[in-house]
Amino acid sequence: MHTKTITATLTALALSAVMATHAGDEIVVDGSTTVGPIAKAFAEHLMSQTPALRISVSESGSGNGAKSLINGACQVATMSRPMKPQETLAAQVKGINPVAHIVAMDGLPIMVHPSNPLKGLTIEQVRNIYFGRINNWQFLGGPNLRIVRISRDTNSGTFECFSEMVMNKTRLASNVEYVGSNGAVRQRVMNTPAAIGYAGLGFVDATVKAVPVNGVMPTAATVLDSSYPLSRPLFMYTNGEPATGTFLHAFLTLCQTPKGKELIKAVGFVPLADGVQQ
Amino acid sequence: MHSTNVTPSLLLSTRSRRRRRLAAGLGRAVLFGVRAVSAGAVILIIGFIVRDAAPFVRLCGVREFFCSTQWYPAGTPAAFGALAIFYGTALVTVSAALIAVPVGIAAAVCLSEMLPFGARQAVKPVVEILAAIPSVVYGFFALVVVAPLLQTHGNYLLAGLVVIVGIPLGGGVVLLTGTLLGRGAARRRGAPTWLLGGVTAVVAALLLAALWRCLQVQVDSGTNALNVAMILAIMALPTIVSVAEDALQAVGRDLREGSYALGASRAQTTLHVVLPAATSGLIAAIILGVMRAVGETMVVWMASGNAAQIPAPWFNLMAPVRTLTATIAGDMGEADQVTGSARYHVLFFMALCLLLIALICNIVSEIVIWRKHKALG
């Protein structure tokens, strides 16, 4: 009698487990905290249209996203920088063929606290600040406060772009504070009057102040025509080209449709110009 | 009285005796197997970490790791100097211990010796709830609430901290002086009360000076060593209070009753009999609390600022620091696993260092408890 109940319960559990895995299609997205909001907006839109579809979006950094794609843990790796040669090599060793899709354009705004009277910075000045040569806001026409520099950690594509475009790959000062996501950068700058930081264009809102770099303010127009010096494309990588008609293809080509461009604009980034090929 | 041949066999038959022995042996084997599995898991963890940490020693050697403060694993050329990171771990741990130990021991003494039973039943679960809060919630609280608070009202927060920590710490110092003065040569000379009064006055003056200095402090950045030290102290507090309170309760009634019988007051019993008797348990409590602080990752990663530097001056708690745990958590994603670079293996070397620290703390606490048992037994 006991054995019968036990066997029956176990079979029922096994069957329900098997049925649960066939409940619908699933896409796993992992990677950049910059592209994360775009991926989440796309996921919500597609999931509202197709109830059986499940898309999960994680944001652990561009480097982590590439690693997940290489290990087969995700289908889409969102990255705010192009894949490095070592990563491409590692992917090919594991039999993954990474294909890049440009989803949107982004500019790296330099953010300060709204109470900071700063009128603008040159790239040279930003480099000197982060290198440690300029330590007090009074040398830049601001209040007598020690500059608190916020940077993204080395896991981040945003950090790599900043390092390449602004720092020319030199080392940052040793008292630079590192945070784990673009949202955290905004949160720190918002709360610290003496702070300076950089994130993605979509993270600039009324709580922080973006300053013009080399005289150019980061807006959608200046990022698209590259007059803003710190512009960069945002990528989504997949293993090979997704087959037309699958949900994965729909997810990746959403950025070219008017609805996708509207979603990208709503999150604060710059959609690709009409007619631009991926 | 003639005894019939009624000798009820009190011995078991051979067959049931053998069965019993087999069952006992089986039970012992199963329990040994379970114990072996848990010990084996620990040994396997240590083995894997050592296996992945060794390539770093082969690639870069340990000299730069332990002597240089330049931590740039992503730079070209890469620099793996972790001295500033070790200093960061030490700074936040020692600061957290300085806050948590006086408060925790005082709370344990209060719970065990002074509060009536009903109040104790009410307060103890509240302290234990602190242990149940997830560390990421503490980290979030540190980043979103404490950091801006430190920036705007840092001086008041610091002054409050000095009061909360200074009073038990000062009380402990006065107590220690009193105990030392009551011994040996000083007692024979008739230890003057005014000396003790002098010490109390000095401690009080120091506290007031510290308070006044704190009210002048201006904090630039709220994510710093002080923020982390405060939150780590709150996280270590339930451990310290629980273990210390158990140690105080374990001091038997006979010791207390003996002290009362000799005419000592309640305060004298607590301070001169119970506390010294429970020393080994208190030390074990402190070590456990320190281990909790050393191994904490989420709070330090979110709220310490993560700057690999030795603050100037060395005791400046208002500067951002970087700890071992936060470095491992923050750099793991970017470290190139496939090409087996030094950047990946250095993280395992750091994990090995953390493991060794935990092992040493454990061994020290075991030795302390064992020596006390030897002394008593």
Note down, in words, how this protein is organized.
- The complex is a heterodimer of chains A (278) and B (377).
- Chain A folds into 2 domains: 2-105 and 233-271, 3-Layer(aba) Sandwich (D-Maltodextrin-Binding Protein, domain 2), CATH 3.40.190.10; 109-217, D-Maltodextrin-Binding Protein, domain 2 (3-Layer(aba) Sandwich).
- Chain A has helices at 2-21, 36-49, 62-71, 85-93, 123-131, 157-165, 182-191, 220-224, 247-253, 258-267; strands spanning 26-31, 54-59, 76-79, 98-107, 110-112, 148-152, 177-179, 195-198, 209-211, 231-239, 270-271.
- In chain A, β1 (26-31), α2 (36-49) and β2 (54-59) form a beta-alpha-beta unit.
- Chain A has 278 residues and is an alpha/beta fold.
- With 377 residues, chain B is mainly alpha-helical.
- Chain B has a single domain (63-376), classed as Orthogonal Bundle (MetI-like fold).
- Helix content of chain B is 76%, strand content 1%.
- Chain B contains 14 helices and 2 strands.
- Chain B has helices at 14-60, 63-67, 83-114, 117-132, 135-181, 184-188, 193-214, 225-250, 253-261, 266-277, 279-294, 298-303, 324-331, 342-376, and strands at residues 71-72, 79-80.
- In chain B, a hairpin with a 6-residue loop joins β1 and β2 (79-80).
- The model of chain B has no long low-confidence stretch (mean pLDDT 88).
- Classes of the chains: A alpha/beta (278), B mainly alpha (377).
